């Protein structure tokens, strides 16, 4: 990780190593953090992330989709998030903002990822990289976004719980 990347909290003893998809989300979050803070060129950020130790354990295709998709669709993602957050997205911490961008992108484009998994993975990112209660905020915002982006899937899950 570089000086400009969010620091990951240490993993508890006995935890399994993260999956390739989770590692790709972590790398994409670090790249988005760099982009949100410094506004660098996506290609330069991509190259920087690929140089980081452990990148070879990522799902590179998923990393590409997340990093480049979130940057390319940042305005659309922020417009969608604006309907569900309690402040301007520019006022969110860069970690929470990046996590919400990744979660929203996955809800919108990664239909192979169940909505609950997309939300859970975003919550785990927020727990690992964000502030103390940031994961609760991320969960609430993405739950609302999921109802908008995947209404049939969300309604079916809620009906199954009754």
Q: For the terminal residues, how far apart are their CA atoms?
A: 45 Å
Order of helices and strands: HHHHHHHH
* Mean pLDDT over all positions: 90
How many strand elements? Answer: 0
> Largest sheet, if any?
none
Report helical residue fraction: 55-70%
Look at the helices and sheets and give the structural class.
mainly alpha
Radius of gyration: 15 Å
Give the low-confidence spans. Answer: none
Oligomer: single chain
In short:
The protein is mainly alpha-helical.
List descriptors.
162 residues; mainly alpha; globular
Describe the structure.
This protein is mostly helical and 162 residues long. The protein has eight helices and no strands. The protein has helices at 20-38, 42-50, 60-72, 74-82, 94-109, 115-129, 134-149, 151-161. 38% of the residues are buried.
Topology:
Blueprint: H1 20-38, H2 42-50, H3 60-72, H4 74-82, H5 94-109, H6 115-129, H7 134-149, H8 151-161
Helix pairs in contact: 1-2, 1-3, 1-5, 3-5, 4-5, 5-6, 5-7, 6-7, 7-8
């Amino acid at each position: 990780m570089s000086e400009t990347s969010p620091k990951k909290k240490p993993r508890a003893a006995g935890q399994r190593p993260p999956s390739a998809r989770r590692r790709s989300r972590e790398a994409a979050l670090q790249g988005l953090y760099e982009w949100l803070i410094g506004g660098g060129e996506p290609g330069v950020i991509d190259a920087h992330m690929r140089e980081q130790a452990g990148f070879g354990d990522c799902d590179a295709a998923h990393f590409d989709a997340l990093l480049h998709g979130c940057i390319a669709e940042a305005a659309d993602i922020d417009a969608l998030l604006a309907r569900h957050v309690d402040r301007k997205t520019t006022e969110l911490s860069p970690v929470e903002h990046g996590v919400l961008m990744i979660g929203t992108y996955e809800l919108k484009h990664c239909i192979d990822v169940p909505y609950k998994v997309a939300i859970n993975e975003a919550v785990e990112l927020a727990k690992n990289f964000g502030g103390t209660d940031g994961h609760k905020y991320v969960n609430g915002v993405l739950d609302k976004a999921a109802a908008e982006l995947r209404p049939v899937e969300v309604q079916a899950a809620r009906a199954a719980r009754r």
